[in-house]
Every structure is written in structure tokens, then in C-alpha cells.
Amino acid sequence: MNTFDPRAKLSIVIALSSLAIIVKDIRLAVFIAAVSLAISMMLSPSIFNILVKLRRIIPLLLILGLSQLLFNKTGTQIFQYYSILITDAGLKEGILVILRMLIIITSALILATESAGSMMTALSALKLPYEIVFMVYIGIKFLPIFNDEFKNSLLAVQLAGADLKAHSLKDKLQVYVYIATPAVVSALNRAKKIAIAAECRGFRAYPHRTFLNNKKLELKDYIAILSVVILFTAAVLFNKQLV
Amino acid sequence: MSFCRLDSVSFSYPDSKSILENFSIEFNKEERIGIVGRNGIGKTTLIKLMLGILKPQSGRIYLKKNDIRHMSLAQVGQKIGYCFQNPDNQLFAPTAYEQIAFGLKYSGFNNQHIAERADYWLNYFEISNIRDSFVFNLSRGQKQRVILAAILSRGTDFFIMDEPTTGLDIAMQNKLSKCLKKLADEKKGFIIISHDKAFIEAHIDRAVLLKEDGSIKDEYI
Ligand SMILES: Nc1ncnc2c1ncn2[C@@H]1O[C@H](COP(=O)(O)OP(=O)(O)OP(=O)(O)O)[C@@H](O)[C@H]1O
Ligand SMILES: [Mg+2]
Predict the structure, then answer these.
(1) Is the CB of residue B194 below 6 angstroms from any atom belonging to ligand 1?
(2) Measured from the CB, is residue B43 less than 6 Å from ligand 1?
(3) Which of A134, A146, A215, A237 is such that its CA lies 20 to 30 A from the CA of A191?
(4) Contact predicate B75/B124, CB 8 Å
């Protein structure tokens, strides 16, 4: 089923994630989360594996929800135990914040079903300057390497005997700068090498670029984009009415 | 007393075949050990397990009677000087001097001793001339010398060096040899991983060969 044009997917993701931000009603948020999950399931058969891998962020979600629950003191009280005060508004915001994050995560997974290369062609087809698209692409591609380098310097600094906790502010700063330095230096070096390689292969030698695989919107893509627009408008209007 | 002990350790990287299975071995504090075996057999992995960088799926690892799981990397680093296989992964400070001084600072030396020791070791490995150069642009062999100076300057009781001769010219290999002999005289132990048979045989009194079938050949020389 993974046959929609990346631009159609992009509009779905933008619509869903902006809805996630503006939604103010729990029922509507649940509905949007369900739609978002359904779409990403439809587009990616391995979605459950990805979600299992993402299980580490569950505590983060719970903390976000809990902090709303405990520290939001607006609305009317529904429960009090010594200094712990829980209000209906806090409860609502707590649940909403979790749902919002879920929508954003599941909708972002829709984009993950597309390879970086085809995302790139799609973005250039949207008339975005190719230079910018190329930079984004390179950035995404080298993120794992950046991560590895970061891990290595983290190990090296610790094995040199430095504890990451407990030191003066000055020492802490030095430790963090050292941990970040190798990754930054190698990113800059890599950028230089890529620039040379790209130039050798005639990057920007001609004002117009052609692509091996041209992206063309098909009927189903237009239908998808149109329904996104309609649903998005409906959800926004519905959301306004509820407030 | 055993310095480091692995007790029926099993380890595999995620989604790949097992590297160690039910592996037990003991290293003593004053031993000079060589670990050998073909590329990819798991020598570096074994070291990373010993240092607590990697966690075994089962089994226990002890460093001086302490379960490695309850030690921080900084605590391990204060007992063992570890030289990574690839210096690029170990250099973090912008200059050679800073790299050496950082380790010395966390070994508890005062400022005056830090400066003295750092300069002694820069001099020893003949890198005083690049003391303040940008370390990430140095040659492979120069980087290796910076790392060796940083590790050896700290004077820990035990050293682990993963292919320390890589990139070193003959003169520098001889200098490293001299250091290792001196460590032996001081009754300090070390583990060397190397594919250089002559170099390794000149320095060790115990050889551990990791074999294809998961067994080891462990012999005292
Ligand atoms: N981070 C990793 N993830 C997955 N597999 C790994 C990882 N690191 C190493 N391996 C694999 O584990 C095996 C052992 O690697 P290791 O680096 O311990 O070998 P080695 O004996 O040190 O080899 P060499 O002599 O080349 O240094 C290799 O087959 C390697 O491909
Ligand atoms: Mg190795």
C-alpha cells in the first residue's frame, strides 16, 4: 500500500501534527491519534516493530503527563491529599499532552516509510531550492555517525577518569565541550569532503537539475491531499466550536 | 589476587551471532598478557566487556573483587589505562597537551605536576613540537603517540592497549617497547592486543589465543 507520493504523505503529516498542537478536546485528540496510527499502519507493515523500538520514550510521555496532572492548578479540584492537588483541568491537560505526543510520533513515522532519496526528489518537486534539500538529506544521512562519535568521546572522557556528575561548573563545562568537540570537528571535515566530492561530480554545474525518477502526482495522491484539506478544516472548525 | 575475572560470560551484539559463550578467564595484577586471534574474533569486544563498556547478556565480571556493574566508567578508568584501537575515537581535546593534562587532572595531580608530567611524556614520544597543534589534523602515527602519552602519563597500575603499535614507525615502536619493559620492572601488569608477533612476544609472559570455535589457548611463556 506504500504507493502515495511523498508530497501527499507530507501534507498528511503536516495536517496531523498541526492538529496535534491545536487540539483542545480529548475525544477529538483520541480520534486524531487513531487516524494517525491507522494511516501509518496502512503505509508501513513494520510499524509495530518501530513502535516497540520506541518504547523507551514511554516514561518520558508519562512524566510529561504527570507534570501537567500535578502542577496544573487551574480548574476545579477533584482530589486532594496533603499538598497533592489534582484538578479537572490538570487531568485533562495531562491526558491531552500524552495524546499530542502520540499523534506527532505516529505521524512522523509516516514520513519514515519514505526513503531519504525519494523524499528529496519530492521536496525539490515542491520547488524548494535543491541546495537546501541536499543539505537536509546529508544531515539526516549522517545523524547516526554523529551519534557514534558522540558516544565514543563520552566513553573516552569517562575512561580518562572524569565523572560526569559532581564537579565545579567550570569542570562541567570543560567536560561537555570535550565530549562535543570530536563530533563537531568531524562534521565540519566531512562537509568539506562532501563539498569537494559534489563539485567533482558537477554539482550545480547547470542551472537545472534532472532526476532519474520523476515524481508525479497521481489521482489517488490528489484525492489524499484533498481529503486531508477537508478533514483538517473540519477538525479545526470542530475544535473551535468545542472551546 | 586476581585483578580481573570473567565468570561464564556470554555476549553477542544485537541481531548477530554470539562472540563469547560461557567464557571464563582470570587475569592477575602483575601479569603481562597478550591477546591474539584473527580479525573479528572478538578481542576488542572482550576488552570492552572487561571495562564495563559493553554489558554481557549473562555471567559476571569482576575488577578487583568489585562487580563491574556497580562501577562507573570513571572509576574503571582510574584503575586501568586503556588505549583504544582507533585513536580517532579517543581524542577529544583540541590539543595534545590538553588531552594529556585532562587525564592527569582526574588522576589527582596538582597543576605543577600536571605540567611537568605532560611535558615529560610529550618529550618522550617526541611530540613537543606539536604540543599545541590542532590534534584532529595530526597524522595517524602522531595521534597514536598523543594517546600513548596520555595513557602512560597517568601511571595507573594496569594498562590495556589495543594494537598500540599501529601507525608507529620503528623508532617509536622501540620507545613503546622501552616503556613496556619499564612497566614490567615496576611490577605493573598489562594486556596487549596485537597482530605483530615479534613485538608481542618480546613483552608478554602469558598468551591468550581466541579460537574460531569459541575456545581459547591460554599458555604461560
Ligand atoms: N558495535 C557492533 N555491532 C555489531 N557487531 C559488532 C560491533 N562491533 C564489533 N562487531 C562484530 O563483532 C565481532 C568482533 O569484533 P571485534 O572488534 O571484537 O574484533 P577484533 O578481534 O578486535 O578484530 P580486529 O583484529 O580486527 O581488531 C566482529 O565480527 C565484528 O563485526
Ligand atoms: Mg580489535
Answers:
(1) no
(2) yes
(3) A215
(4) no
Over the range A125-143, which residues count as b (16 or more CB within 10 Å of their CB) and which as e?
beeeebeebbeebeeeebe
- ipTM of this complex prediction, to 2 decimal places: 0.93
Alpha-carbon torsion, ordered B118, B124, B127, B131, to 10 deg:
20
pLDDT score recorded for residue B127: 96
Domain ranges of chain A: 1-114+216-243, 116-212
Q: How many Å apart are CA B184 and CA B204, to the nearest integer? A: 9
Q: What letter would DSSP give residue A162?
A: -
Q: What are phi and psi of A212, to 5 degrees?
A: -70, -45
- The pTM score is 0.75
d(CA B82, CA B151) in angstroms, rounded, equals 7
Q: What distance in Å separates the CA atoms of residue B95 and residue B202, rounded to the nearest whole number?
A: 33
Residue B111's pLDDT band, with cuts at 50, 70 and 90, is: very high
Reply yes or no on whether the pLDDT at B129 is more than 90. yes
Region at A75 (left for phi over 0; alpha for psi -120 to 50; beta for the rest)? left
Q: Could you tell me the three cell numbers for B102?
A: 585532562
